[in-house]
Amino acid sequence: MRNATEIKFPRYTLVTVSNPASLDLDELARRWHFHPLDLQEAGTLAKRSRLETYADYACLVTLWPTYRRSTRDIKPVVLTFFIRTDALVVLQRGTFPVFTESIQRYAASNELRTALAERSPERLLYEILNQLYQSLFPMIDHLIDDCDVIEQEIFASHERQMISHILAIRRNITDVRKILQVHKSVLKRLATYLTENPRYAMQSTDRYFGDLIDYAKEDWDTLENLKERIEALQQTNESQISFRLSDIMKTLTIISVFTFPLTLVAAMFALRPGGGMPWASDPNGFWYVVGVQGTLALVMFFVFKRKRWF
C-alpha cells in the first residue's frame, strides 16, 4: 500500500494509510475483512462522525478541524479507526500534521512502543485521541484571542475595519462547532461498546474514555460560549456603525435645514433686481439681505439649541 505505515507491537499491529486509493481499500478488505461500506466511506470525505460496531471490530469515523493559514479558514480532515483485538487500522483523508507527527513518534521511538507493548489496541486508540484533543486547545484559544482583539477594536472606533474580520471568525467558530458537534455522543457509544465487549482487554475503559468525553464536552461548551460572544460582538459592531451613520445623517440634516432658508431668501431677492424689489437700488441692499439671512440663522440656531437637537 502506498502512503502506509505499519508498526508492530507484541500483541497487535498499528496500520495507518494516508489518503487511501481504491487498491489500498481492496487490500485492507482482503487482509482484515472490513465491511465494504465502511471502506467505501473511508475513501471519501465523511460529513459527520459516527460509530459502527460489528462482531469482530468497530469502525470509528471522526472529523477534526484543521486551520489553513493561506485562506484563514477551517477545513475538516477525516480519521477512520478500525478497532480490532489484534490491530488498529487508521485511514486518514486529508492533511492532518498533528496525527502524522504522532504516528511518526511511535514509529521512531522504541520507548513509546515499549510503554504500549503490553497494552491493547484500544489503549493505543485512547492515546492517539488524547493527543488529538490536546491539539484542539491551541486552536480554540486562538479563537478566544481573536474575539478579544475584535472587542478591543470595536470600542477603539475601528468598527468598519472589523466587519470582514468578525464574519471570518464567526465562520471559523461555526465550522469548528459543526465538525465537533457529535464527538461526545460518539465517544460515549464507543466507551460503552469497549466496556461491554469481552473481546477487548483494556482495563478501566470507561475511566480513560471518560477523560476524552470530558475534553469533547469542554470543547463544545467553550465553542458555544464563543458562538454567543461573536454574535454579541457582531450586534455591537452593527449598532456602533448604525449610530455613527445616524450621527452623520443628523449633521447633514442640520446643515441642510440651516442653508435652505438662507438660499430661499437669496433666491427671492435675485428674482427681479431693480423691478420693485426692496433694497434693490439701495447701495447697502446687499448688507440688508445678509442681515436678514444672519437673523434667520440665529433664530434657527437658538430654536434647535432649545430643543436639544444638537
Please explain how this structure is put together.
By secondary structure, the chain is an alpha+beta fold. It has two domains: 4-242, CorA soluble domain-like (Beta Polymerase, domain 2), CATH 3.30.460.20; 248-306, no CATH class. It has nine helices and six strands, in the order E-E-H-H-E-E-E-E-H-H-H-H-H-H-H. Strands 1-2-6-5-4-3 form a six-stranded mixed sheet. A hairpin with a 3-residue loop joins strand 5 (73-83) and strand 6 (87-93). Helix 8 runs antiparallel to helix 9. The longest helix has 65 residues, at 205-269. The chain is rod-shaped. The mean pLDDT is 86.
Compact description:
This protein has 310 residues and is of the alpha+beta class. The chain has 9 helices and 6 strands, in the order ββααββββααααααα.
